[in-house]
Amino acid sequence: MTGEHDTRNDHGFFGQPRALVHLFGVEMWERFSFYGMQGILLIYLYYSATRGGLGMDEVSAAGIVGAYGGAVYLSTILGAWIADRLLGSERVLFFSAIVIMAGHIALALLPGFLGVGVGLVLVAFGSGGLKANATSVVGTLYDEHDPRRDAGFSVFYLGINLGAFLGPILTGLAQTTLGFHWGFGLAAVGMAIGLVQYAFGRKHLPPEASVVPNPLPRERRPLVIGIAIAAVVLVAVLVLTGLVNAQNLVLWIIGGTIVAAIAYFAVILASRAISTVERHRVYGFIPLFVASVAFWSLYQQQFTVLTIYSDKQLNRDLFGWEMPVSWVQSINPIFIIVLSGVFAAIWTKLGDRQPSTPIKFALGTMIMGVAFLLFIPFAGGGPNSTPLLAIVGILLVFTVAELLLSPVGLSVATKLAPKVFHTQMVALFFLSVALGTAISGRLAEFYSAQNEVVYFGVLGGIAIVLGVALALGSRGVLKLMSGVR
């Protein structure tokens, strides 16, 4: 790397390469638009037309939100494949940002369910492509042994959480004062700001960001194009014939994700290109995969059940002014910003004495279950019956659980991955997030204010039992992990 692309000797952005500011910006504004839109999406679907919504029943609306969330994480696999085989991470990131912006514009300008359908498909595919490649591009700014690397990623993740914090606040204000389409429009404006900044800054990225690691042979491209066209036609036929509809969409996403996960595990475990130790490590990843699914199926209910709960039972009165529903989703990012540094310091201080990965996963799953049990004292309350401080406390527990499981998930996937299946193991972790997110939408269909004790009690109890089982079996899992902690 030489000239303007020499990031190794560039300390122009708080001691980091100047190019990081452009990646920080595009990721911050993407998260702003993503969480801003998601903060008002569910209530847009089920609010009556007189309140500016589409008047769906809550069950179907929650299922759509869960299916959409699952599709985002499923799309990360497609985004990673396109980067690895066709375009390279930098180009996929750029085009994905354009697709995301187009999706938010569709939600803002197209009427009714047409806008929802076009908008959510575009945002899901775009977010998947951007999510899969932004971290990879950040990594190209540093040599493998650059001491600034971890700090640079910390700055990058700060951008993620700043966007996640600001998005629901500003789109919620736009929705309550001007209307839903203004909220979606604000999400589009945010993504446009990030895209413009990145468009000017991408020329400063190192050449490695645009490399296609494993180019698809030219003679195989017609086959890939044919498969892509066939997939689009198949989806169109399923939708037009009514086999896929708003009521069962989440079940299709769950089924497709399960099939993909089983296929991934089968292909890796059956391969002759992996050693016995590598095969044992893949087996060791299976209980972590199950715990991750359980965790995300509860955690992602922030965007389904918790949104309904905040709309109907939470006391959102702030000195005589009613706080927008979406603001509840800005609480978690605040805690992440504050606590991520605390957790990093704790793990650094403990060093080799810190809990193993299976124990961290077990604790994360158990604490997530405890968070659900904390809803029970407020169960069955009427409108405005739950104090805002109670939800703040519960979301603090959500965050502690997240910081025990989420940051180590991708890390352990890369550590346990066989050399020839490095990307596929990362894809498997994203599949656990996709499956958990889709399941969260399906579970929300069983929620009602009348059965809150059963709902929160059963799901919380299941998560705790799974966490305890993983903790009890952690020695066996560690043995399979063959030296990886």
CATH topology assignment of the largest domain? Growth Hormone, Chain: A
The succession of helices and strands, N to C, reads HHHHHHHHHHEEHHHHHH
Strand portion, in percent?
under 5%
**How many domains?**
2
CATH top level of the largest domain? Answer: Mainly Alpha
For the biggest sheet, the summary is: 2 strands, antiparallel
Helix content: over 70%
The CATH superfamily title of the largest domain? MFS general substrate transporter like domains
What's the Cα radius of gyration? Answer: 22 Å
Number of helical elements: 16
Low-confidence stretches: none
CA-based shape: globular
User: What is the first-to-last residue Cα distance?
Assistant: 35 Å
Number of E-type strands: 2
Strand arrangement within the widest β-sheet reads 1-2
Average pLDDT across residues? 84
> In the CATH classification, which architecture of the largest domain applies?
Up-down Bundle
Structural class by helix and strand composition: mainly alpha
Membrane topology: Multi-pass membrane protein
Protein name: MFS transporter
Domain Major facilitator superfamily (MFS) profile: 1-475
Main location: membrane
